[in-house]
Amino acid sequence: MLDILVQEENERESGETGPCMEYLLHHKILETLYTLGKADCPPGMKQQVLAFYTKLLGRIRQPLLPHINVHRPVQKLIRLCGEVLATPTENEEIQFLCIVCAKLKQDPYLVNFFLENKLKGMASKGSADVITEDMIRGQDSPATDMGQPIQSEEMPIAAGAEQMEKEDDLPQQADELSFSLDELNVASSPESSTVGPNQDYNLVNSLLNLTKSPDGRIAVKACEGLMLLVSLPEPAAAKCLTQSTCLCELLTDRLATLYKALPQSLDPLDIETVEAINWGLDSYSHKEDASAFPGKRALISFLSWFDYCDQLIKEAQKTAAVAMAKAVRERFFIDVMEPQLMQTSEIGILTSTALLHRIVRQVTSDVLLQETVYFILGEHREPETLTDINRHPLRHRLIEHCDHISDEISIMTLRMFEHLLQKPNEHILYNLVLRNLEERNYIEYKPFCQEDKDVVENGQIAGAVDLEEDPLFTDLSPDNTLSTQEWLSPSPPVSPEHQKNDGKTEVHKIVNSFLCLVPDEAKSSYHVEGTGYDTYLRDAHRQFRDYCVICLRWEWPGSPRPLEKCNLEASFFEGHFLRVLFERMGRILDQPYDVNLQVTSVLSKLALFPHPHIHEYLLDPYVNLASGCRSLFSVIVRVVGDLMVRIQRIPDFTPKLLLVRKRLLGLEPEGPIIDHMTLLEGVIVLEEFCKELAAIAFVKYHASSTP
User: Fold this and answer.
1) Model's pTM, two decimal places?
2) How would you write 364-385 as a 3-class SS string?
3) What's the rounded mean pLDDT across residues 353-382?
């Protein structure tokens, strides 16, 4: 039959229906084949019918699905697919379903033939009435919420078997959708989620069943079919997909099941370094793996399913994507992950934070990223106050973990925030930092008068602290400062005044301020080749360019908000996140080396953002701070003051410092333990951090002054 139909089409002009095809359509041959396939009579007939339908749809070029005598039997055959897992016909079933999905992808409007009207269709003999917009809008009424629940991933096997028996006992006309409401209202087990009726979008329901196939290839093909269906632009299909099928439940229940199957304790390094996961290639052999660790199989399964959810949401039609992402947030992030992140067990906190860090790194869908960000940080955008920093408990807890008694937890949480800040989502930086800098109320504002103008022209900023008169900066003489040519050439044109018209402090003064913060007796980099300030310029330039690309669409202002328009009377609070970072920065001389590296890394990432208020608050040493306020520069100044006092008490300070630096660089072999090791390592990190900030300040200035 198939060969005759293909040959007939090839012999005729494009689009012309031949007599054989007309016979097939008018005499309901496909209906007859469906009936034989359903009964599997003679045995093996179902397999043959599925193969025939698949080849017919795949090889005939003219559109067949719009014909009622094609789409009606196709719809009925779809219902037979995925009914029982691991059947001999599974391969043919998935091939058939995928060809239908491919046809719908070519002509998305055809999907309307597969959205069944569940109210009218129940009485008719299997008729697949086309669902209307009104019908879909009415799906929220109680009468339409009854449905035959699909077995959930978490339902015990016995309960599933019991349910299968109940389904087998249903009357024969069940296939024709004529269930009574009593039969439909089967109670779900408490763990299984209540789902919408599975009569509306049977193509999706059959694919959902086949994603549970024990044969991995079948499951992957079913996932590919779902990927095609969610991307269809038809709004009616998208709404039916998320409201009347259990797609969202399948995604989130499986995420939850796979997450719960992970060991209670996993090495964070294993979580971070397990190879990149592709959902379609979730094949893993423990025997062949040289770097196996307990729980690796479970971890790969979880991460590959999360990758599938991410890709599905990325490809999905917009309303379907939002619905699926919200389901992931509510049913997985909040219900499953949040209790793990809020626990008090240190091992549990470390493992769950490492998994959250991996998820943050892995997510690529904008819609899912938005929901992930709202889960971690909440949706608040108004300035923080000391009294309400606990408004979003998870955000509060995670920021507190940045200063945890366990260094491992602190480092892991800081790394999570560092990666979060690099994600292309404006709400992250606004929620953590920017909302508290909007009013610029960290500035001591004096109205500008003629006297101040004269002072500026004479080479001093009004109200600024002159570093040369500061007791901490007695070594800041003209001989010690770097000339413009020394730190980079070519440099921007030097103007005689210290403040540009746009409010930027002359860049060489800023750079020298950071470079001269650490006193000469506490510096060790100039004794070691290749550790100069210029090494940071290349990195800063590359990173700043990347950040500018991310922030371009956020339409940030080019200059700070005019002080006249700011509410300077409001008391300033830097926000919970910066407060914790500043407190950790203030203890840099007493913290482990790894913690210091991570704290300074997060602060330098913040300083790179091209927002004028961030630049002013974190990178301008000459900003005139309001009473009781601190900035990054003022925190470092206090640390340096403490350092200068402590240096006096340590004999042979400079040689010890140089030895520690060489050991850290691997230039010296590990030897006897040196006294004051933590302090010496802290001094080295402090010196390097000041050079990094100087490089960032210069690169940002140069970028803004270049047209």
Assistant:
1) 0.80
2) CCHHHHHHHHHHHHCCCCCCCC
3) 97
